């Protein structure tokens, strides 16, 4: 079983739609959780951290359920520029390393 | 502005050759990492370093080596390139005080023929 699992998609949605991505992780000792965004053939960039209380950054909302070891990302009012691959990322407990999911591909259509 | 750079950006080599990929960061970060990214596997950790003279093996370290002689650079060497090492390689760095946020270089696309 992979340490971080994501639905690979692709998700094709129209502009203005709301889309949600899910991710599960296997290491119950993980302490930090993130969503990174990766545009085609470019480097991953931090989109947002994920906190137990849930957190919001504009149109993006991230939530963490530690009991179910589940992370989600909600994008409201999708824009064409949101088209990218979204990577679910988890740290390995006390380690300073990150484990990356394989990513979920999103295409926002005009 | 601080940044992290990789060179070359593209490289074609032959099986059996030694190849070195450069990574240079001006963030003054102690932590540096090398990943490879392949379809279906996501990013996988090759080697990492938490400071000068410190190096550690990651998940897929066979056939790769690194050395850390200063804070800014972590070169990745493929001792004898194999076709299975055709991939996109990303270098990253992080500040120990904010250890979980990693900043990535633009990547090196390596093809081994």
Short synopsis of the structure:
By secondary structure, chain A is an all-beta fold. Chain A has strands at residues 4-6, 11-14, 19-25, 33-38, 45-50, 55-57, 60-65, 70-75, 84-91, 98-100, 104-109. Chain A is built from no helices and 11 strands.
The multimeric state of the shown protein is: heterodimer
Quantity of strands of chain A, as a count: 11
Q: Would you identify the regions of chain A where 5 or more consecutive residues have pLDDT less than 50? A: none
Q: Can you tell me the residue ranges of chain B where pLDDT is under 50 for at least 5 consecutive residues?
A: none
Mean pLDDT across residues of chain B: 94
Q: How many strand units of chain B? A: 11
Q: What's the number of helices of chain A?
A: 0
Percent of residues in beta strands of chain B? over 45%
Give me the secondary-structure topology.
The complex is a heterodimer of chains A (110) and B (113).
Chain A: E1 4-6, E2 11-14, E3 19-25, E4 33-38, E5 45-50, E6 55-57, E7 60-65, E8 70-75, E9 84-91, E10 98-100, E11 104-109
Parallel strand pairs in A: 2-11
Antiparallel strand pairs in A: 1-3, 3-8, 4-5, 4-9, 6-7, 7-8, 9-10, 9-11
Chain B: E1 4-7, E2 10-13, E3 19-25, E4 31-38, E5 42-51, E6 54-57, E7 64-66, E8 76-78, E9 87-94, E10 103-104, E11 108-112
Parallel strand pairs in B: 2-11
Antiparallel strand pairs in B: 1-3, 3-8, 4-5, 4-9, 5-6, 7-8, 9-10, 9-11
3D structure, described in words:
The complex is a heterodimer of chains A (110) and B (113). Chain A has 110 residues and is mainly beta. Helix content of chain A is 0%, strand content 53%. Chain A has no helices and eleven strands. Chain A has strands at residues 4-6, 11-14, 19-25, 33-38, 45-50, 55-57, 60-65, 70-75, 84-91, 98-100, 104-109. In chain A, strand 7 and strand 8 form a beta hairpin. Chain A is globular and about 40 Å long. The model of chain A has no long low-confidence stretch (mean pLDDT 91). Chain B is mainly beta and 113 residues long. In chain B, 0% of the residues lie in helices and 51% in strands. Chain B has no helices and eleven strands. Chain B has strands at 4-7, 10-13, 19-25, 31-38, 42-51, 54-57, 64-66, 76-78, 87-94, 103-104, 108-112. In chain B, the strands form two sheets. In chain B, strands 2, 4, 5, 6, 9, 10 and 11 form a seven-stranded mixed beta sheet that branches. In chain B, a hairpin with an 8-residue loop joins strand 9 (87-94) and strand 10. Chain B starts with a strand and ends with a strand. The mean pLDDT of chain B is 94.
């Amino acid at each position: 079983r992979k340490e971080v699992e994501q639905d690979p998609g692709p998700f094709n949605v129209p502009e203005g739609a709301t889309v949600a991505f899910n991710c599960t992780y296997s290491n119950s000792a993980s302490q930090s959780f993130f969503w990174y965004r990766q545009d085609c053939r470019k480097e991953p960039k931090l989109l947002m951290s994920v906190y137990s209380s849930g957190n919001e950054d504009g149109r993006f909302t991230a939530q963490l359920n530690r009991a179910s070891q589940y992370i989600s990302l909600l994008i409201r009012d999708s824009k064409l520029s949101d088209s990218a691959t979204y990577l679910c990322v988890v740290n390995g407990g006390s380690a300073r390393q990150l484990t990356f999911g394989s990513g979920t591909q999103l295409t926002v259509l005009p | 502005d601080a940044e992290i750079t990789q060179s070359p950006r593209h490289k074609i080599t032959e099986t059996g050759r030694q190849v070195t990929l450069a990574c240079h960061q001006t963030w003054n970060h102690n932590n540096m990492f090398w990943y490879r990214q392949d379809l279906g596997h996501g990013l996988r950790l090759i080697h990492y370093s938490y400071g000068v003279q410190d190096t550690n093996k990651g998940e897929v370290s066979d056939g790769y080596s690194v050395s850390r002689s200063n804070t800014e650079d972590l070169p990745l060497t493929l001792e004898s390139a194999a076709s299975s090492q055709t991939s996109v390689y990303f270098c990253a760095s992080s500040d120990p005080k904010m250890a979980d946020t990693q900043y990535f270089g633009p990547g090196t696309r390596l093809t081994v023929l």
